[in-house]
Amino acid sequence: MDVSGIDSSLANYQTSLGNSLGLNTTSSSNSSGKSFSDYMSDALSSLNDSMSTMNTSTNNLITGKTDDLSQVMVNMTEAQLNLETAVQVRDKIVSAYDDIKDMQF
């Protein structure tokens, strides 16, 4: 794969990640009416899909059904980054909850 192919693959991944998280770069308003739980559900579904893809490609490499180590590594890296992002979002949500809980009215 040449450098332009990698650049386009990265751009496609960023676009699909933004879409899966509900980030619409073409519109600045929330016309879909999605709630926070909808966004979280979509993000967790995307995380689950990437983990499943990683598991499948790893199993295929181990069993000899595929010999494309580079694609397996890409799938593993995607899953790792998605999981790290999910953990960071979870930590921010817990922190925000604690801040709200500690507020005095």
UniProtKB/TrEMBL annotation:
Lineage top rank: taxon? Bacteria
Name of the coding gene? fliE
Keyword Cell cycle, does the record have it?
A: no
What's an example GO cellular component term for this entry?
A: bacterial-type flagellum basal body
Q: What is this protein called?
A: Flagellar hook-basal body complex protein FliE
Q: Which GO terms describe its molecular function?
A: cytoskeletal motor activity; structural molecule activity
One Pfam entry name: FliE
Spell out the family assignment given in the record's similarity comment: Belongs to the FliE family.
UniProt subcellular location: Bacterial flagellum basal body
Location, primary (coarse class)? other
GO BP, sorted A to Z: bacterial-type flagellum-dependent cell motility
Keyword annotations: Bacterial flagellum, Cell projection, Cilium, Flagellum
